[in-house]
Design a protein that fits this description.
The structure holds 2 protein chains of 2 kinds. By secondary structure, chain A is of the alpha/beta class. Chain A folds into 2 domains: 243 residues, Rossmann fold; 112 residues, 2-Layer Sandwich (formyl-coa transferase, domain 3), CATH 3.30.1540.10. Chain A is 36% helix and 16% strand. Chain A is built from 16 helices and 16 strands. In chain A, the strands form 5 sheets. A 6-stranded parallel beta sheet of chain A has the order 3-2-1-4-5-8, sandwiched between helices. Chain A has a 3-stranded antiparallel beta sheet with strand order 11-12-13, with helices on one face. In chain A, strands 6-7 form a two-stranded antiparallel ribbon. A 6-stranded parallel beta sheet of chain B has the order 3-2-1-4-5-6, sandwiched between helices. A 3-stranded antiparallel beta sheet of chain B has the order 7-8-9, with helices on one face. Chain B has a two-stranded antiparallel ribbon with strand order 10-11. Classes of the chains: A alpha/beta, B alpha/beta. At the A-B interface, helix 2, helix 6, strand 6, strand 7 and helix 7 of A face helix 2, helix 6, helix 7, strand 6 and helix 8 of B.
């Protein structure tokens, strides 16, 4: 594993977040920052969220914790107690970023709001991740991932027209919030490097979700139409008498589904559709749709019935092949078609293997290495990498409290007896 | 080197970006830099206009090269030039831009920039302090890197389609190119961190992104679960393994409301809000395990309750008791959302062809250096004169020559017509 510096090596992050903000610190840590996760004594509640390693519910075996807390060191500290607040402030003096996801006003109530932290470390960047932002009519509202996806508008276009659905994997609203908060923190960081000024970063999960689906508001703004989910179809809004056009892009094949973009319209679409029809024709299929002229195909005027006829014919061909065979053909023939991957398909993807995407991370306590999703981008000079597995509860208490802050063992014992640490 | 001055109001004021990217995932990077103050020049050509100029939604449903809200959204605050990069003088302009820029963005097919003499090696040779960022669907190299598709395909590749839907339904389209709104956040983070790093080292660098891989980081939990335990997460509808009730329920006027009861305490409060309903104290729902066992029935009963209320009524009743709930906001509700209004999320800019139109702000507010929407997206070639003359220092004669010989493009090729467009 390369030991080269990351882009954020040398900068320290104090991470007070719960499951809504864990990802922010992970992103900064994987880019090289020295992230110290501060958990309440006993450990973060995110450790109770599964799935668990080998399906064993245990605070040290939560894959949810593992996935979103890599490249962090971990200490326990009760910042609701005065001693805890003093220790936290001592740590702030050594830090460049503080990230938190408490309810608005909570940090202030402890005397740890931006104003106070700025007094301790004038150029500190405080990043606050909340469901709706620091102020405003919803700022006291509670939210989970589901509520975030709903209130940010993304959910209204997922699923089918008569029932919206969430994304099962993620949690996407938390991850969007955490990732965009990490980006915003680095923007503030650049300003500090230039000007010496710190600042307060106020991140709204609702807005982060809305930015992941800007089409929702834009469509209403332009044509006063509320989009909805359209199942496996690509949907084109049209007025009566033709009504909306549904082109089923997610289509079944021999061993699952593929996403095939087909139809007429812009030249890329036409070329790709022609290529798959040619392939099918070579194998004696899709002959029955040769009369449909792609050159004059117009999404605004084509009859749904004609489109459905072509779909049925395409499915007949797709069902003769596997996802892998179809993707190989798509690459060779320039067809806009990709497999609808499951998690297992992704782990077996030769392309990711060739690009050395996966990160093997040692978990000595479990006597194993686990495979993690790798770099979101590659930088030769300052590589992204997972620097370490997620911390155990209080794993670095001694390293940070004794060695860095110089708290003596008897003092530590005293603090522990009062559940400060 | 351009540096933001101490008095700057936005983070990236003085930072220069040459944006050779197109469609959505690439231009969104430049947009984020531009709303934070960078001078971003979007490079296009009438010979092969950005295909999202042809993509819905169009203002008032009327198509036009400068009327796509999709294009407008990811290109706000930028300057726009039109140039034929294949022509000798086009190459010269590209070289001038390369020397001028702090950052180059591109999202062409892998190899396309190198064919134009604008690959990262060429550009870093011309300007060693350049931050050069390539983003593409599957990366610049690897067995499948030549794949041509859209964000819809990345959704499918990265597992989002397989994980969206109901246990008894097929995979679902995402309704948006979701992965196009993951990759840019990482790219912006890396570019800005690289600009900070450059202040120490003076050196530029190359950033290479696969949008597929960036998307996969959002699947990190379930990829880990699959690798460690062999579990393959698929479609779960709106159920959650740890919360109950947890779902979306029908409301008046075809709306839906999301409700997530996350703890025993919240369940007690939920019971209190619904205390007048006969079933609420039923033994079938008394404990978490019982609720999980009878979840279908419970969801049905909650739906009976929400059906006669508006999404806003349910939200207020539950939130006032500290229970996570919220309407499934459609475009109409987002634009009127009281919290978004409070945060001034949508900003109206007046575009010469689109007219007044709402643009989204970033999800963050920086207390000292807030991002700012200043200019609507450029019309094709709108800032040719400003960029060539003021930013690159070319003379009027040079510019006139480039118009005459077609280096500066002015007209769209007839073959590129909308042909009905994509909706």
């Amino acid at each position: 594993m390369s030991k080269a510096e990351g882009l954020l090596t040398g900068f320290r992050v104090l991470d007070l977040t719960d499951e809504k903000g864990d990802f922010c610190g992970k992103v900064l840590g994987d880019f090289g920052a020295d992230v110290i996760k501060i958990e309440p004594p006993g450990g973060s509640l995110a450790r109770n969220i599964g799935p668990f390693y080998k399906d064993t519910p245990d605070t040290e075996k939560s894959l949810f914790w593992f996935a979103f807390n890599t490249s962090k060191r971990g200490i326990t500290l009760d910042i609701e107690q005065l001693d805890g607040q003093e220790i936290f402030k001592a740590l702030v003096q050594t830090a460049h970023f503080v990230i938190e996801s408490f309810k608005p006003g909570f940090m202030e109530s402890l005397g740890l709001g931006y104003k106070e932290l700025e007094g301790v470390k004038p150029d500190i960047i405080l990043t606050s991740i909340t469901p709706f932002g620091q102020s405003g009519p919803y700022s006291d509202y509670e939210a989970t991932d589901l509520v975030g996806l709903a209130m940010g508008g993304l959910m209204s276009i997922l699923g089918e027209s008569n029932r919206p659905v969430r994304i099962s994997s993620g949690p996407q609203a938390y991850l969007q919030a955490g990732l965009q908060a990490a980006m915003a923190s680095v923007l503030a960081h650049y300003h500090r490097q230039v000007s010496g000024e710190g600042q307060h970063v106020d991140l709204s999960m609702q807005e982060a979700v809305a930015l992941a689906a800007p089409i929702v508001a834009e469509t209403y703004e332009c044509v006063k139409v509320n989009l909805s989910g359209s199942g496996p179809n690509y949907f084109t809004a049209r007025t009566q008498p033709l009504g909306p056009l549904y082109l089923q892009y997610l289509l079944p094949c021999k061993d699952g589904h593929v996403l095939l973009q087909w139809g007429g319209g812009y030249p890329g679409n036409r070329k790709s559709t022609k290529a798959i029809l040619n392939w099918a024709n070579e194998e004696g299929l899709c002959r029955d749709v040769l009369d449909i002229d792609l050159a004059t195909w117009n999404s605004m005027t084509i009859e749904q019935e004609t489109a459905d006829r072509m779909k049925r014919s395409l499915v007949e061909f797709l069902m003769t092949k596997t996802k892998a065979e179809l993707f190989r053909g798509a690459l060779e023939r320039g067809i806009m078609m990709a497999p609808c991957n499951t998690m297992a398909d992704i782990l077996a993807d030769a392309h990711l293997e060739a690009r050395a995407f996966w990160e093997k991370v040692a978990h000595p306590e479990l006597a194993c290495e686990l495979i993690y999703a790798g770099a979101p981008l590659k930088i030769t000079a300052n590589p992204w990498r997972i620097r370490s597995r997620a911390p155990l509860i209080g794993e670095h208490n001694s390293e940070i409290y004794e060695q860095e802050l110089g708290i003596s063992p008897p003092e530590l014992e005293l603090l522990k007896s009062h559940n400060v640490i | 080197m351009a540096e933001a001055s101490k008095m700057s109001k936005m983070v990236l004021e003085g930072t220069r970006v040459a944006d050779f990217s197109w469609v959505a995932a690439g231009p969104q990077i430049g947009r984020e830099l531009a709303v934070n103050g960078a001078t971003v020049v979007r490079v296009e050509s009438h010979r092969r206009p950005d295909m999202i100029r042809m993509s819905a939604p169009f203002k008032d449903g009327r198509p036009g090269w400068n009327r796509s809200a999709f294009y407008a959204s990811v290109n706000a605050n930028k300057y726009g030039v039109s140039i034929d990069l294949a022509k000798p003088k086009g190459k010269l302009v590209a070289q001038k831009l390369t020397k001028w820029a702090d950052v180059i963005l591109e999202s062409m097919q892998p190899g396309a920039m190198a064919n134009l003499g604008l690959g990262h090696e060429d550009c870093l040779m011309m300007n060693p302090s350049l931050i050069y960022c390539s983003t593409s669907m599957l990366g610049q190299w690897g067995p499948h890197c030549s794949f041509v598709g859209t964000g819809f395909h990345t959704n499918a590749l990265a597992g989002f389609c397989a994980c969206t839907g109901w246990p008894d339904s097929d995979p679902t389209m995402m309704g948006t190119q979701y992965s196009d709104y993951v990759a840019p956040w990482y790219a912006v983070l890396a570019i800005v961190a690289a600009l900070a790093k450059r202040r120490e080292t003076g050196k530029g660098m190359y950033i290479e992104q696969s949008q597929y891989e960036a998307g996969l980081t959002m699947m990190g939990l379930h990829l880990l679960d699959c690798a460690a335990n062999g579990h393959i997460v698929t479609r779960m509808g709106n159920r959650d393994s740890y919360m109950c009730p947890h779902g979306v329920y029908p409301c008046r006027e075809g709306r839906w409301v999301a409700i997530a009861v996350a703890s025993e305490e919240q369940w007690q409060r939920f019971c209190n809000v619904l205390r007048d309903l006969p079933w609420i104290g039923d033994d079938k729902f008394r404990t978490l395990l019982a609720r999980k066992t009878n979840e279908d029935e419970l969801d049905g009963l909650i739906g009976e309750w929400t059906r006669d209320l508006t999404a806003e009524q349910v939200t207020t009743m539950l939130q006032d008791s500290g229970i996570p709930a919220g309407g499934v906001q459609r475009g109409q509700e987002l634009l009127q959302d009281p919290q978004f209004k409070h945060r001034q999320h949508y900003q109206v800019l007046n575009h010469p062809e689109i007219g007044p139109h709402s643009y989204n702000s970033p999800a963050y507010r920086l207390s000292r250096t807030p991002a700012e929407l200043k200019r609507p997206a450029p019309c094709l070639g709108e800032h040719n004169l400003y960029v060539y003359k003021e930013l690159l220092g070319m003379s009027d004669d040079e510019i006139a020559e480039m118009v005459i010989d077609g280096t500066i493009t002015t007209e769209v090729d007839g073959q590129q017509a909308f042909a009905g467009g994509k909706g």
